[in-house]
Amino acid sequence: LNDITVLANIGVTDAEQAQKQPLLITVSFEYDASQAQYSDRIEDAVDYASIRADIIALTQSPVRLLEHLLYRIKTHINQQYPVTNVQVAIKKPNAFSDVAYVCASA
Length: 106
Known about the structure:
There is one protein chain. The chain has 106 residues and is of the alpha+beta class. The protein is 35% helix and 26% strand. It contains four helices and four strands. The chain has helices at residues 14-18, 34-39, 48-58, 66-80, and strands at residues 4-8, 21-30, 84-92, 102-105. A four-stranded antiparallel sheet has the order 1-2-3-4, covered by helices on one side. α3 (48-58) packs antiparallel against α4 (66-80). The radius of gyration is 15 Å and the shape is elongated.
């Protein structure tokens, strides 16, 4: 899932927290897709729509740090889905006027 776009109350300062800011969230993972390859059934696969909805829901609570939000998303996916090697990257494009984005990833 590349660059899921959400609006979130995120930032260290009160000014940052006052308005929702855009974030771009990318999640990758591994899982055993062998059954889904043969069956062509969503029940045998990881449901990307469900993961996307969870990520959007997790961004609705205010946070101060990208790192904290990253931890919440990564932990949730690891606990709720049969996946391994979860990687999350969160870009915050409006952090500075002279920087394309800041990014936290793990």
